[in-house]
Amino acid sequence: MAPSIGQCAVAAALAWLIAKDVLGHSRPFFAPIAVVVCIGVGLGQRLRRVVELVVGVSVGVGVGDLLVSWIGSGAWQIALVVALAMAAAVVLDSGSLIVLQAGSSAVLVATLLPPSGTGGFDRMLDALLGGLMGLAAVALLPASPSALATRHASGMFDALADALRRTAEAIERCDSGLAAEALHAARGTQSNVEEFRQALETSREIATISPLHRHRRTRLEGYEKAAVPLDHALRNARVLARRAIVALDGSSPLPPWMPGALRELAEATLVLREELAAGRTPEQAAQAILSVASRQGSERWGFSADVMIAQLRSIIVDLLQATGTEREEAVAALPPLDVPKELAHPKTGQT
């Protein structure tokens, strides 16, 4: 959070000084507030926040100035002003920031800042100034977009590798309890996915608006290609762990090669993490994944085992796609499976 906090602090002070000393506004508190809302301590959508902030403040101040000058201030006046300002904002755009800013701005006008002269226009100008200062702070005092993406991507890679290793250990020990623990840990990985998505969006935004980091946009391409396949791989790892619980309870035997394949995929996942972090084409990771793919057997083991094999093959395809391989090529890297006769098409022999 340190970069965002520093950006907020510096830009809020500068926005106040410019609005007060350059524009001559006596109490320009909308300017530093706009900075904090624009930058925030979260990730992503700063450009959209600026637009929503300015629109929300404009609606709130406009409605507040118009009504308070007619009906005065008081409890029922505040209720009316807030309701109309927020309703107008919803009509314009249902974005939560627009609606909240419209309501809060209307409250300020109705209670602390009664309308006077050009006050409404000045407040809208302060909000715009604060938003622009926030963007300037992001552009000139930014966190490294590649470092931001790398830090949050590590959580996804580590979570996937951990899920594969835990499942492999459960199979080796024939322990359904360990498989249940692996499933429980894998189910908690969705937060890693969401954090990475937000970090990647913020990284793209920084690389777009910051002249200092525009050259790093190419470093983000590897993460952009890997984001969705990694999400799919984590989902498939959860299904794999869930089916392992059933299989280890005795529903069907499991192929002896599966734990080794899972461990190799876990190691390949970490290699992929390191190659993307270094900005290299993930050739070593792709070779490691292809090695696992080429050794997949075609024999049948029973329903639960076959489901696990299918999930393993899906994870292989997902990881190959994360390296930048096209889906058709990734699927073609897997040897065909034997299809039971009762499932085969009578003419083609395909399922």
UniProtKB/TrEMBL annotation:
<feature type="transmembrane region" description="Helical">
    <location>
        <begin position="74"/>
        <end position="92"/>
    </location>
</feature>
<feature type="transmembrane region" description="Helical">
    <location>
        <begin position="29"/>
        <end position="45"/>
    </location>
</feature>
<feature type="transmembrane region" description="Helical">
    <location>
        <begin position="127"/>
        <end position="148"/>
    </location>
</feature>
<dbReference type="Pfam" id="PF13515">
    <property type="entry name" value="FUSC_2"/>
</dbReference>
<feature type="transmembrane region" description="Helical">
    <location>
        <begin position="50"/>
        <end position="68"/>
    </location>
</feature>
<keyword id="KW-1133">Transmembrane helix</keyword>
<dbReference type="InterPro" id="IPR049453">
    <property type="entry name" value="Memb_transporter_dom"/>
</dbReference>
<protein>
    <submittedName>
        <fullName>Aromatic acid exporter family protein</fullName>
    </submittedName>
</protein>
<keyword id="KW-0812">Transmembrane</keyword>
<feature type="domain" description="Integral membrane bound transporter">
    <location>
        <begin position="14"/>
        <end position="136"/>
    </location>
</feature>
<keyword id="KW-0472">Membrane</keyword>
